[in-house]
Design brief:
single chain, alpha+beta, rod-shaped
């Protein structure tokens, strides 16, 4: 289709040196602009990702109550969303219910001295290692890992018994509430 001389002539065409320099300079400038723009975008997205990660971690920290002492009811972690009181299968609860009294086993992990007060019933503080009864009453003081039972009568469904404990100036509350729809008592922490 094309002769060899035409092909050779086409291959020997060169742009003037000034034009070549302009094109190479423009391409390099465009590449530099894109690189700077990419770096700015990467920095912006990195900052946004860091803020999002910090927000999520703080929200989960607050939602899970990780800054608060750990509270377990019948060896299950108690949260603000609550849970039903231990079932009839629990030996302590079953034996107490036969006497029309409910016993709620609690374990509270604290790092300091705690004052524990109940609005209804009585708490019994036990040594976590030996199981020995250390104190009983509506108002007791404990230190470190606290193993106790909250013994009370749950005959009035309109009542909302409270157990409060104060540690390092902060007060935490455990509340009992009757769920009329389910016909069960639930326990919550706040």
């Amino acid at each position: 289709m094309f002769s060899k001389t035409e092909i050779t002539a086409y291959q020997n065409i060169t742009a003037p040196a000034a034009l070549r320099e302009k094109i190479l300079a423009a391409a390099q400038k465009e590449e530099t602009t894109h690189t700077v723009s990419r770096r700015k975008n990467i920095r912006t997205f990195s900052a946004l990702a860091a803020c999002l990660l910090l927000t999520i971690s703080l929200a989960s920290y607050a939602a899970l109550g990780l800054g608060a002492p750990g509270i377990k009811v019948d060896n299950k972690r108690l949260s603000a969303s609550g849970m039903p009181l231990p079932s009839e299968n629990s030996v302590a609860v079953a034996s107490a219910r036969s006497l029309s009294t409910t016993v709620i086993p609690l374990k509270i992990d604290t790092s300091g001295v705690s004052d524990i007060i109940v609005t209804d019933g009585e708490v019994h503080l036990f040594d976590p290692d030996s199981g020995e009864l250390l104190a009983s009453g509506q108002n007791i003081t404990a230190m470190g890992e606290i193993l106790l039972t909250w013994e009370l009568s749950l005959t009035d469904p309109t009542a909302s018994p409270l157990l409060t404990f104060t540690e390092k100036g902060k007060t935490y509350t455990i509340t009992l509430a009757f769920d009329a729809d389910e016909g069960i008592w639930n326990i919550f922490r706040s």
